[in-house]
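Support reply, case 0932

Customer input (verbatim):
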Amino acid sequence: MTTAFEPIVLGGKRLANRLVMAPMTRSRAYGPGAEPTELMATYYAQRAGAGLIVTEGIQPSIVGQGYPDTPGLHTAGQVRAWRTVTDAVHRAGGVIYAQLMHTGRIGHPSLLPDGLVPVGPSAVTAKGQVFTHEGPKEFVTPEELTEAEIRQTVADFAEAARNAVAAGFDGVELHGANGYLIHQFLAPNTNLRTDAWGGDTEGRIRFAVEVTTAVAEAIGGDRVGLRISPGNQYNDISEDDPDEVYLALLDRLAGLDLAYLHLMEGPDRDLTPRLRKVWPGTFVLNPFTYPDSTGPDALRLIEDGSADMVAYGALFLANPDLPRRLASGGPFNSPDKATFYGGDHRGYTDYPALPALPA
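Our regenerated output:
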């Protein structure tokens, strides 16, 4: 029986365990330039005991930013600043992937320079609000991407992946979940296009396939992961019957020999074993536990073969040395959900350390 505390090889790297620190937006890239800060280097190095760290969402271009103070990977300054983070994690013995997240229609013009507005596959406004420096604001109608702009966006992802490698990251994860741009192309309520980038299943998966292929060609498929969340309604997404689209997507991507597929599971848990069965590579599972956070009982998902690796989010915030505490059966700090779901703000400090475990 395989356990969560056994090593696994991912992208040529031998990981110490099968526990993943899930990507979580922190909004700590304060100031101009959207560059990572020393606080972020400390934060990630504290959690280097994870088999794999996946960073917060990093915008691959200026227009890809949807939240205040989130970091980028599209300037030389950002690459240099991220190097301090990756060096800190590597010194602590960790492995870290950069999550590339273009938020698409989720955002606001006040977060963007030079009169830019959010973009999307179609001009469909999301219901709800986004947090800005001036407080919550209603989402605006995004500009529909032209063919040329879609091609440029694909190229932006590939260039950001090259920048990630230059910054010392061990690989990248493409954020195709949670209602952001890649997911917006996949979902029928956000992609109303009738050209080759929409319409039928083949059209709706095309953007995800081309982005993933371009990034794999740029840095090697064995250093690329993809995160998906079929049926997830977050950010006003509607996918009543996601099976056909996601099974077709995985079929098209299977030949790229990607590092992993990262499933953010939804309430339709029947789809999980079908995706697990058809995916030929490493399968990372962020199990559906709402309204609770993922807990120690999720370790059995590796033991029973449901996944190769399991991702933890909020519990990793509250317990920087989470792998040791899971191996020892606790104790655990309880996640502060108001902080986790509300994001971080200036002056926020991480949870205090629990009493030391035996060496």
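We compared this against your earlier run and they match. Two observations from our side: The longest helix spans residues 147-166. The first strand starts at residue 8 and ends at 10. Please reopen the case if you see a mismatch on your end.
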